[in-house]
Each structure stands twice: as C-alpha cells, then as structure tokens.
Amino acid sequence: MFDSHSLKPLRAECGEPQLRVVAVLIVAALCGALIWVLASLKGYTRLGGALFFAVPIVWGMRRLLQERAIVSHLGASVGTVRSSEQFVNEDGYNYSVEYKFDAADGEAHIGNSAVSRKEAPAKDSPIIVGYSTVNPDENLPLEVFWFYKFNGVRHY
Asked: What tens digit of pLDDT does each residue of 64-108 get?
C-alpha cells in the first residue's frame, strides 16, 4: 500500500490533497457573523456575541494553519497505533489515539490525535500519517484533516 517514507505512493493512491471548500466557507461565514455582531450589537451583548463567534474562528484558523503547514511540505508514513482511549461522548465514537511513525529523516516520531470511529483503533493497527517534512512533529492522521481531503483515505 504505502512505503513508509515516500510521498509518491500517497499521491499515486490518494492524489493531491484537495482543499475542502465547504470547511473554508464555514470559517468565512463565522468571520462574517463576528463582524456583524461587532458592528450591530452594543454593551455586554456585543462582548458575549464576539466571544461566541471568536472562539470557533480562532480554533478553526489554528487548525487550518496546522494542516496547511503539513500539506505544504507533505510527507506520508504508515504508522502504528500505540494506544487508544475513548473519551466521553454521547455517540461513543471519539478516541484519543497515540501513534508512532517513521519519518523521512530516519527517526521514529510519536503523535497523538482524536479520531472518530465506531470502534477503537486496535493496538499495532496501521494508521496513515501525514507530516511536515520540515518538522515531523507537525503531524496528523490523514483521516482527521478538516480542511483537506485525500482521495482513497477513509474518513470515519
């Protein structure tokens, strides 16, 4: 399936990463709503409304920048799940996963991320990790990217 250090198998199987336009539009709509709140409301209502919209905007922008940093210097590796732990959610599908992967720099790196699956990822099961070749500590499983999609990668 994938060579642990090569980007070519990732692009051959999954194609180029594609920006999810809908996700970007959602962040843009939140920015527009924030501007409207700041322009039209007064007093404490303005402060509450600004905080209501600012928190997801900052969270979304941070995530977009993180994913952009990875995609702009994309490396890929098939890592292995070291551990997974379910965290409380009414659906019961969210897991905190720790994984290990070998990067192009020849070193093993450890990453962790929240994943949404119906079943917990088994220990030692494979997980496809995208990482920045400039800084492999910037990494995420390809299935959890919000703003980019990879054809052929299952998003649970």
From this structure: 999 999 999 988 889 999 999 888 766 667 889 999 999 989 999
The identity of residue 47, as a single letter, is: L
Cα separation, 97 vs 100, whole angstroms: 10
β-partners of residue 57 are: none
Residue with tokens 């980007």: 7
Domain spans in the chain, listed from the N-terminal domain onward: 8-15+74-149, 18-69
Rounded to whole angstroms, what are the CA distances from 103 to 98, 100, 115, 121, 131? 16, 10, 21, 21, 8
CB 147 within 8 A of CB 20: yes
Q: Which of 153, 113, 111 is nearest to 11 (CA)?
A: 153
Neighbours of 49 (CB within 10 A): 17
CA–CA separation, 145 and 141 (whole Å): 7
- pTM, entire model: 0.77
CA distance 138 to 134: 9
- CA 146 to CA 142: how far, in whole Å? 9
Task: Collect all residues with Cβ–Cβ distance below 8 Å to 47 and sequence separation of at least 6.
Answer: none
